[in-house]
Every structure is written in C-alpha cells, then in structure tokens.
UniProtKB/TrEMBL annotation:
Keywords: Transferase
Classification via SUPFAM superfamilies: UDP-Glycosyltransferase/glycogen phosphorylase
Pfam families assigned to the protein according to its UniProt record, in alphabetical order: UDPGT (PF00201)
Keyword Transferase attached: yes
Protein name: Uncharacterized protein
PANTHER family on file: GLUCOSYL/GLUCURONOSYL TRANSFERASES, UDP-GLYCOSYLTRANSFERASE 76B1-LIKE
GO molecular function, one term: quercetin 7-O-glucosyltransferase activity
InterPro entries to which the protein is assigned, alphabetical: UDP_glucos_trans
The keyword Transmembrane helix belongs to this UniProt entry's keyword annotation: no
Length: 453
C-alpha cells in the first residue's frame, strides 16, 4: 500500500463467536497495511496485550454479567444496539478528531444501530457478517416466507416439507428460528438485514466454493460490494481471541488415543440445555462406546455450576474412555489425528473449523443461524448428520456409530469431509485462497479514503 496507512475502526460484539472473527479480520487487515483501532466493551473484552500492533478503545456501558443471560440472544442484541449508541458515537467522534486517516468503520451485522451512527457522522460502514452467507440469505427471506404462510399453524403437520424458496431448508428449520415471538424475531432480523443493505460493503467469513449456489440470490437482496474472504482462521488462528482459558489437558489426553477414534463434543460459547437433555447426551455418549472429548462449559447445563448433575455411575461406565473439560483449544483439537468426528451446535466458526480440518459432523442446532448451518451440513454439503429428534439417547448412539464407524453412508461422509479439507488446503497454498476478494476489499477501503481525502 502506498503512502501512510489508512485506519479502519472495528467494533466487535462481546461474544466469542462474534469477537473471534472480528479480531481475526483486524489482524488480516493489519497484515494488508491498514492501521487498526478496535472499540470494545468491558464485558468479554479482548486482551490488548496480545495485539500490541492494534489500538484498543474501551467504551463504557454495554452488558453487565447479569444482563448477559445467553438464553435470549435476540434480547442481548437489542440491548447492545440501544445501550451502545451514545458511547460508540462519542468514541468515534474522539477517534475522528485525533486521526485524519480513518477510512471506514467495520461493525458486526448484528450491531445494526451503528449504520445510523455512521451515516450521522458521515463515515462509511462496512458490515461483517460472522456467519454463513446461506443463513444471512435465509434471514433476508423470512419476511417473504411469513407472508406466504410458513409460520401458520396449518403448516404444523407439514414440518418435514421442503421450503421451495430456500432449498435445502425444511419448514421445521424456518419455524425453529423463531425466538420469544415471531414479531420480535422478524423485527430484530429485519433491522440487521436493512442495516446491511445500506452499508458500503458486506464481508462474510466464508468462501465461494461452499456458498456458490446461493450467491446469485444473495446478490438480489444485497446490492452492494460483497466479499467472501474466509475462512479467517486459515489466516489467523482463533486461539488468541478465546475468551475462556483453554484446558490443554484435552490435547494430552488426545495424544493417548488411537487415530480417528475420538468424538469431540462442544456446543460453543452460548448454548444452554436443561439437565434432562444433558443426561441424554451423556448416556448417548456412554452407550455409543466411542471415546469422546466433551466440552461442558460452566453454564451449559441450566441451573448447575459444572458436572454436579452427572451421576457417579456415568464415570464408572465411561472409565478412561471419556475426557470432560470446561473449554478446549478447539482448532488444535479438531486438527488432532485422534479426532474422527465433531458433535457441534453448528455455530458458524465451529462449522468452518471442522470443514477445514476434514472432520465430519453431528449437528445439534440450538438457535438462529445454527438451524440453517446444520441443514446445509446434512443436506447440501453432506458433511455430517443432523440430529432430528433433539436430544434422545437412542438416536445419539446410532448417529455416533454412523459417523465414526459405518462403512457405507458414514464412510462416504468421512471421505467427502477429507476431500473438502484437501481442496481447501490446496487452494490456500496455491492462490492464497481468498486473495482475490481480499484484494478487492483492500481496494475498496483504500478508495473510500482517497475519495474523502
Ligand atoms: N471454542 C473454543 N473452545 C471450546 C469451544 C469453542 O476455543 O471449547 C471456540 C471455537 O473454536 C469457535 C468459537 O469458540 O471459534 C465458537 O464459535 P461458534 O460460532 O462456533 O459458536 P458460538 O460460541 O458463537 O455459539
């Protein structure tokens, strides 16, 4: 890049699955010669010491520990969008008065209120959507589906039917995306979508080959420069932006296991389940007789600190065959030779990390985009199996056996997962994988600056 570096101001949301990709993007753009400022909350703050090359700016307010109840993500996004408007505006004002090199801000798609702030201040906003393009397309299509009656009770008996507007989704996937009330769900999602439509650019942490069938349709909804520059973690690991301490005993334990025989189980940073479901997970794992590494994050099981609900009998049955930790170095775990399968909640970062390591998935989606990601993994990409009955030990046991051992359908899924890994590795080595869209994004940011200089 010629001349002084231009500055980009990024504002991540304070949740693991949103923070990691934004910090990764900050590092990617820094490696492209941009100066980077990161505005952040105190709650789930990134550690500035880990990134001395980026400058960090703390804003007051945001979420308290008490407010950050993860059982209602829509309420969290609403709260953040309202509470942060003043502090972000003040912080941006200060940054703009002290730096004359600012090209644009990049904010999370879910931070839709930042679009109005950007317009008021007169600075372009580029949106980072931290999940898949297919899930964003789904969000954009939901109002139409509502009009067409996909949320009507008459369809309750046709939950398995396909949604012709959005293959391969089924009616039940669309219906599962409703949180609290349909009106509130659609209002929050519509703010996110409309905010993105009026932005200056749209970035996805995903890649062209995976999302290709949806891109034309996506372009109809979002008529703005769009950049698929993922998977970010291929450029910059997510490990440094982990908000919880990663237990390295999980890796030592994997070192003692045979190649490809361990099922890694993690439902991400936000999902919660009741004790009954957790018990089904535990007994499904035990009955499958496969070795497993299970991340039970404190707070995963509602009303419990950690493992109090697990009966002693469980430990006796699994003996040395299972390892349970509070949080793991996931990327390293997925790339470990002992790991042969990943039972995931289908969060987008987890899905991408699994695809890049060639690990077939078992999918248990909990909320929002996870329902879309898991359907795509099962039906479109055929890189895993979606649990269709919720948490039910018999289904769990048989699906684990299918993914880990089956020589027919399971073998096909395992081979397909390895093919994707090889394809990704080869394209990453040969043409830098996302270098073309990344160059285009760099050009866009540089041109914004030059036109406003
Ligand atoms: N992760 C981790 N250790 C764990 C579980 C998850 O480091 O024990 C990381 C994982 O690698 C991923 C992120 O946490 O980058 C989870 O993001 P995702 O989008 O999958 O789900 P979310 O937490 O947002 O629901």
């Amino acid at each position: 890049m010629e001349g002084d570096p231009r500055r980009v101001i990024l504002f991540p949301l304070p949740f693991q699955g949103h923070m990691s990709p934004m910090i990764q993007l900050a590092n990617i753009l820094h490696s492209r010669g941009f100066a980077i400022s990161v505005i952040h909350h105190e709650y789930n703050s990134p550690d500035p010491c880990k990134y001395p090359h980026l400058s960090f700016h703390l804003i007051p307010g945001g979420l308290s520990q008490y407010q950050a109840d993860k059982s209602d993500p829509l309420r969290l996004f609403q709260l953040l969008n309202i509470d942060c408007i003043g502090p972000i505006r003040d912080c941006l004002g200060k940054l703009l008065s002290t730096h004359d090199d600012v090209a644009c801000i990049i904010t999370d798609a879910n931070m839709s209120s930042s679009q109005a702030i950007a317009e008021d201040i007169g600075i372009p906003r580029i949106v980072l959507r931290t999940s898949s393009a297919c899930s964003f397309l789904t969000f954009a299509t939901l109002p139409l589906l509502r009009e067409k009656g996909f949320y009507s009770h008459d369809l309750d008996s046709r939950r398995e039917d396909p949604v012709p507007e959005l293959p391969p989704l089924k009616v039940k996937d669309i219906q599962a995306m409703q949180f609290r009330s349909l009106d509130i769900t659609l209002m929050v999602l519509s703010n996110i979508i409309e905010g993105a439509k009026t932005a200056s650019g749209l970035i996805f942490n995903t890649f062209h080959d995976l999302e290709e069938p949806n891109l034309a349709n996506l372009g109809e909804h979002f008529r703005l420069p769009t950049f698929l520059i993922g998977p970010f973690h291929k450029f910059f690991s997510a490990a440094s932006s982990s908000l919880l301490a990663q237990d390295r005993n999980s890796v030592s334990w994997l070192d003692t296991q045979e190649t490809g025989c361990v099922l890694y189980v993690s439902f991400g940073s936000g999902a919660t389940m009741n004790e009954k479901s957790a018990m089904e997970v535990a007994w499904g794992l035990a009955n499958s007789e496969q070795p497993f590494l299970w991340v039970v994050r404190p707070g995963l099981v509602q009303g419990s600190e950690w493992l109090e609900w697990l009966p002693d009998e469980f430990e006796e049955v699994i003996s040395q065959r299972g390892c349970i930790v509070k949080w793991a170095p996931q990327q390293e775990v997925l790339s470990h030779p002992a790991v042969g399968g990943f039972w995931t909640h289908s969060g987008w970062n987890s899905t991408l990390e699994s695809i890049c390591e060639g690990v077939p998935m078992i999918c248990s989606s909990f909320s929002g985009d996870q329902h879309v990601n898991s359907r795509y993994v099962n039906d479109a990409w055929r890189l895993g199996i979606k649990l269709e009955c919720g948490f039910e030990r018999e289904e769990i046991e048989s699906v684990i056996r299918m993914i880990m051992l089956d020589r027919d359908q399971g073998q096909e899924i395992r081979e397909r997962a390895l093919c994707w890994k090889e394809k990704i590795d080869v394209s990453f080595k040969t043409d830098g994988f996302s270098s073309q869209p990344l160059n285009a994004l760099s050009d866009l940011i540089s041109s914004i600056k030059s036109s406003s200089a």
